[in-house]
């Protein structure tokens, strides 16, 4: 009498079907998201130039902020562009003249305000906002947690414009 | 006959991967790779042999003057911020009067110095990697001038601001 040596063929069952459907859905979603992002990139891509100001930083840090470095968002690591210009001036202190009741504008000793001009590619999203590196919305007033090779600090976007290449 | 059937069963079924198993494995590997890339895990896998030494200069502001006794050259400090060793305090420690800024009666800001309070400047010898994006303490944690780090030794617990980072042998 012979032993039944035929191997059982795998039967496609409901569980396999569910797994296949889930995998196909994930792949389709990824393809849709990537495809729509690329399409949007091509249609709405602009070159942006914006200014980030670091206020009242110690003078000893001013020379650490250099042209040519890459600006990175310190919290989520978005690549925010290249620093194309750096300017600095003595930080301003707004005090009160208690004798006259007037505001007095003077220098903040040993501290400076530093402005960096950053150039970056961006896209304009459906809300009309500039989006850098696929997810960072930049506008005047945005707080920038900046990370550069030789300096890290918190600044604010004070100007923004599109430039023609 | 029954013995032959038992022998066939006892030989064990070979595990055969089918298309479904293959797809599951591909998706899992893709998810793991995606997480690794998103969180920079790959960048952080550094062997100890690739670390280099750096002098990290610091400023600690406005602490009580008695704390000066607890800054001892040679002490190792631990970074609470990064949950890792920070470095070894070097001997060139400066204890300076703590700076303060006050608004005088006519609205001008003046720099003055606090009694019984000090600022501390010094240097740590640290290990890390110099990259195009900056210095990575212990090869994993970015620090740069401007960074604030909560450090502690066996005797003191302070917050410092990094003021300069120089490779050992490269300082002017």
Low-confidence stretches of chain B: none
Question: Helical percent range of chain A?
Answer: 10-25%
Beta-strand level of the residues of chain B, as a percent range?
A: over 45%
- The string of secondary-structure elements of chain A, in order, is HEEEEEEEE
Number of domains of chain B: 2
How confident is the prediction overall: mean pLDDT of chain A? 88
Which strands sit side by side, in order, in the main sheet of chain A?
1-4-3-2-7-8
Helix content of chain B: 10-25%
Low-confidence stretches of chain A: none
For the largest beta-sheet of chain B, the strand count, sense and barrel status come to: 6 strands, antiparallel, barrel
Mind explaining what this structure looks like?
Chain A is an alpha+beta fold and 165 residues long. Chain A has one domain. In chain A, 19% of the residues lie in helices and 52% in strands. Chain A has one helix at 14-44, and strands spanning 45-58, 70-73, 79-97, 102-124, 130-132, 136-138, 143-148, 151-163. By secondary structure, chain B is of the alpha+beta class. Chain B folds into 2 domains: 12-45, no CATH class; 48-167. Chain B has 3 helices and 9 strands. Classes of the chains: A alpha+beta (165), B alpha+beta (172).
């Amino acid at each position: 009498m012979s032993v039944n040596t035929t191997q059982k063929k795998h039967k496609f069952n409901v569980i396999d079907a569910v797994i296949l459907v889930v995998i196909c859905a994930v792949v389709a979603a990824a393809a849709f998201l990537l495809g729509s992002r690329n399409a949007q990139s091509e249609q709405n891509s602009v070159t942006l130039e914006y200014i980030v100001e670091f206020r009242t930083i110690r003078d000893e840090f001013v020379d650490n902020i250099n042209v040519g470095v890459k600006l990175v968002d310190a919290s989520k690591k978005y690549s925010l562009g290249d620093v194309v210009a750096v300017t600095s001036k003595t930080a301003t202190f707004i005090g009160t003249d208690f004798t006259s009741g007037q505001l007095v504008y003077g220098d903040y000793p040993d501290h400076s305000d530093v402005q960096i001009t950053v150039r970056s590619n961006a896209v304009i999203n459906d809300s009309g906002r500039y989006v850098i590196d696929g997810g960072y919305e930049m506008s005047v007033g945005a707080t920038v947690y900046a990370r550069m090779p030789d300096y890290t600090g918190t600044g604010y976007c004070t100007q923004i414009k599109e430039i023609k290449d | 006959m029954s013995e032959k059937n038992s022998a066939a069963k006892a030989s064990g079924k070979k595990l055969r991967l089918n298309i479904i198993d293959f797809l599951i494995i591909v998706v899992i590997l893709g998810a793991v790779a995606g997480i690794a890339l998103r969180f920079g895990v790959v960048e952080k896998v550094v062997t100890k042999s690739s670390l280099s030494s750096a002098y990290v200069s610091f400023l600690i502001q406005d602490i009580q003057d008695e704390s000066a006794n607890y800054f001892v050259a040679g002490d190792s400090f631990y970074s609470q911020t990064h949950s890792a060793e920070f470095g070894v305090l070097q001997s060139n420690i400066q204890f300076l009067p703590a700076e303060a800024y006050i608004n005088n009666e006519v609205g001008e800001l003046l720099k003055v110095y606090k009694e019984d309070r000090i600022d501390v400047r010094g240097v740590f010898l640290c290990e890390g990697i110099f990259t195009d994006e900056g210095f990575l303490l212990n090869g994993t944690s970015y620090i740069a001038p401007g960074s604030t780090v909560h450090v502690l030794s066996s005797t003191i617990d302070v917050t410092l601001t990094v003021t300069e980072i120089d490779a050992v042998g490269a300082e002017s």
